Amino acid sequence: MLVAGQALQWQTTLNGQYDLSSGGQPVIQLYLVFKETIMKLFISVLCVVAALVVAVGAAGGGYIVILKNGERLRCNEPLAVDGNLAIVTLSTGQVTSLPIDQVNLVATERYNKLGLGNALTIDELERTEKIGPTPTPRRTLGNYATLSGIGDQVELSSNLPPTPTPTPGIKLQLNPYKDPKINAAFIEILDKKNLYLYRTSAGSQPEYFFIQAVTDTQREVFHALKTVAEAFDMIATRRPDLAPSAIELRMIETSGRTAGTFRITTEDAATLAGGTIPPEKFYVENVIF
Fold it and tell me: Exposed (0-12), middle (13-18) or buried (19+): which is 93, by Cβ within 10 Å?
């Protein structure tokens, strides 16, 4: 039973006016323990909330598949190419497929491999790539591709603004490939296969051959990839003693934006040229940005 003095002491203590008498000390200790428990609980809740935010953010990062109609699919992992189908795992965990010709593979890989900091803007993502007719043959630029002199390149370079190098060392060099016969052979084959806008030079290594091609549509990207592989495979088959050990292919748009970079080995060229792997699948699995 509380007497009047003890009741008053209890009320006074809870109001923050600590009674230092022996009767009020247990109340003070109880208050401090209660306060400490509340703070620990509050900190724990904050940690849980922060962890949930991080988890949601990580799940939201994922992999973005960009369709040609401008739509974007958020996926858990990169798409896979199976024949004429693109296999995607949506953020919900559902695995589905859609025709590969509905996917903007170039924009998809560029967006994901460059990272959000250097990726496409929202406006660029919403653009729809128009699939036009097969490009009308234009004047071949094989004569400009030999790099025999800087003056021969003025016409092409004036129309192609410089672009940042996606991979250190894989870029157009000032010096031509060491063997003029190989350079001439590539030019002859590429011209016959209707690859019109391109330049050649030495690669990042003495045994590498470099090709830079202008590709403004996805169709041109895959045409360039297949054509270069066929040319390389033909040369490597006929003259393995003179053929380069690898082809470095860089594709850019006329706007200067990169469309992908590759280092193609003789084995890669053989599989592409022979149809063992379609260019769409090879692009997704090997492109460098």
Answer: exposed
Cβ-contact 84, 101 below 8 angstroms: yes
pLDDT band, residue 142 (cuts 50/70/90): very low
Determine contact, residues 251/286, Cβ cutoff 8 Å. Answer: no
Q: How many CB atoms lie within 10 A of CB 110?
A: 22
pLDDT band at 212 (very low <50, low <70, confident <90, very high): very high
Record the tokens describing residue 130, joined without a space.
């128009």
Q: Which residues sit opposite 214 in a β-bridge?
A: 252
91-104: per-residue pLDDT in tens? 999 999 999 999 99
Distance between CA atoms of residues 164 and 242, nearest Å: 31
DSSP, collapsed to helix, strand or coil, labels residue 23 as coil
Per the prediction, the chain carries an average pLDDT of 76
Q: What angle (nearest 5°) sits at the alpha carbon of residue 176, between those of residues 171 and 180?
A: 140
Distances (CA, A) of 24 to 16, 45, 116: 12, 32, 61
Distances in Å between the alpha carbon of 212 and those of 85, 120, 177?
29, 22, 13
- φ, ψ for residue 44, nearest 5 deg: -60, -40
Yes or no: say if 84 and 99 are a contact pair by the CB < 8 Å rule: yes
pLDDT one-digit tens code per residue, 223-277? 999 999 999 999 999 999 999 999 999 999 999 999 999 999 999 999 999 999 9
Q: Which amino acid is at 13?
A: T
* Per-residue tokens: 195: 């690859």
Written as six digits, the tokens of 289 are: 């940005």
CA–CA separation, 195 and 138 (whole Å): 10
pTM as predicted: 0.62
Could you tell me which of 233, 228, 219 has the C-alpha nearest to residue 274? Answer: 233
Count CA atoms within 13 Å of residue 70 on its CB side: 8
Give the up-direction half-sphere exposure of residue 179: CA atoms within 13 A in the CB hemisphere: 15
